[in-house]
Design a protein that fits this description.
This protein has 186 residues and is α/β, with parallel strands linked by helices. Helix content is 39%, strand content 19%. The protein has a single domain, classed as CinA-like (Maf protein). Strands 1-6-5-4-2-3 form a 6-stranded mixed beta sheet, sandwiched between helices. The radius of gyration is 15 Å and the shape is globular.
């Protein structure tokens, strides 16, 4: 279900705009729609997707849920999960992706959560992040352990989320119909 990338964002040598273009193209080819739920990246993933010409045919929108309470209120992340594990956890990333998918009526949800730094937060060291994709095949979550300052961690997390999304969309598996709300969560 998940992968762990330490220090690499999965898109080494590939421009984030190129990865975003792959995501939009693959979503359009599948007839899929996309929604983003972002915490530490604060809209970077959605912005990269929106930069692609033709993105309006696939991108439904995004939710920036920076505050922990908003992850529950806007994205339906279970309150007990947030209380038990905190906001930086793979199950939270999966729940965010499932929640935004449901809330925005998209076929695929992608999410990011983590700690950009400079210091630790919520019991996790700076550079700890998770990206998740829900809606095509098996839900996927990727653990990231990234070096660098705050802007570098945020940018690398956004690239990793886009890379994971591209990998899922370009791989086997059927996207559910538009607005589907079937089994999508963790």
């Amino acid at each position: 279900m998940g992968a762990d990338r330490s220090g690499a964002d999965g898109a080494v040598g590939e421009d984030p705009h190129d990865v975003a273009a792959r995501c939009v193209r693959a979503a359009l080819d599948r007839g899929a729609t996309l929604a983003t739920a972002e915490s530490l990246t604060a809209g970077l993933v959605c912005a990269r997707l929106a930069d692609v010409p033709g993105a309006s045919g696939a991108l439904r929108g995004g939710v920036v849920a920076y505050a922990t309470a908003l992850k529950h209120e806007l994205l339906d992340v279970p309150a007990d999960l947030l209380q038990r594990e905190g906001p930086v956890h793979p199950d939270v990333a999966l729940a965010m992706a499932a929640g935004v998918r449901r809330r925005l009526g998209a076929t695929v949800g992608v999410s990011t959560t983590g700690v950009a730094g400079p210091g630790p937060a919520d019991g996790s060291p700076a550079g700890t992040a998770y990206a998740a994709v829900v809606g095509v095949g098996t839900p996927r979550v990727e653990a990231l352990h990234l070096p660098g300052d705050r802007p570098a961690v945020r940018a690398a997390t956004a690239r990793a989320a886009l890379s994971l999304l591209a990998e899922v969309l370009e791989g086997p598996g059927d996207a559910p119909g538009p607005g589907a709300t079937g089994p999508a969560g963790p």
